[in-house]
Amino acid sequence: MELIQSIDNNILIFIQENLKNPVFDQVMVFITKLGNAGFLWILIAFLLLSQKKYQKCGVPLICAISLAMFFGDDILKPLIGRIRPCNSFPEVPLLISRPNTFSFPSGHTMVGFTSATVIFKYHRKLGGFTFMIASFIAYSRLHLFVHYPSDILGGIVLGMLNAAFVIIGVEAIYNYIDDFH
């Protein structure tokens, strides 16, 4: 665990010392806000649900987002209890409000990669684009010093597993319903 923490710290220090500038910092603030409370992903889900040809994607997307938020924020974060880098190193100035939750896994990342995986399953082109957005949001959490790289990696893996779980479950329900029509 010490090795992972050392790697995490070194990556964050590199970002803080080499990749920060006033313009890019504000871009990262904007990008991270897209992921606040799953806003962007919930908006996309409702847009998909509002169009008949995309509803088959919208239903599992809403389910996956809900499960990711519950499992990541309400179960894993308190259970694991990892302190955020901004709390471990309070001398580093923050560009956003200091989060009051634990660090692992990154909720922004988990919800983003859950969403991108579900969307990719049903719509490859849109899914590729959403993976790019999810990646930018994930990086913004590092840039803004509120997550460690391993929080981001955990969010990616857990988000994709969550999506697979939901897709399998929803597809089974879809198939069950189709059998009765």
Automatic annotation (TrEMBL):
InterPro entries: PAP2/HPO, PAP2/HPO_sf. Gene3D superfamilies: Phosphatidic acid phosphatase type 2/haloperoxidase. GO terms for molecular function: hydrolase activity. The keyword Zinc-finger does not apply. One of its GO terms (cellular component) is plasma membrane. It is a multi-pass membrane protein. It holds the Pfam family PAP2. It is found in: Cell membrane. PANTHER family: DECAPRENYLPHOSPHORYL-5-PHOSPHORIBOSE PHOSPHATASE RV3807C-RELATED, SPHINGOSINE-1-PHOSPHATE PHOSPHOHYDROLASE. This is Phosphatase PAP2 family protein. The lineage of its organism: Bacteria, Bacillati, Bacillota, Clostridia, Lachnospirales.
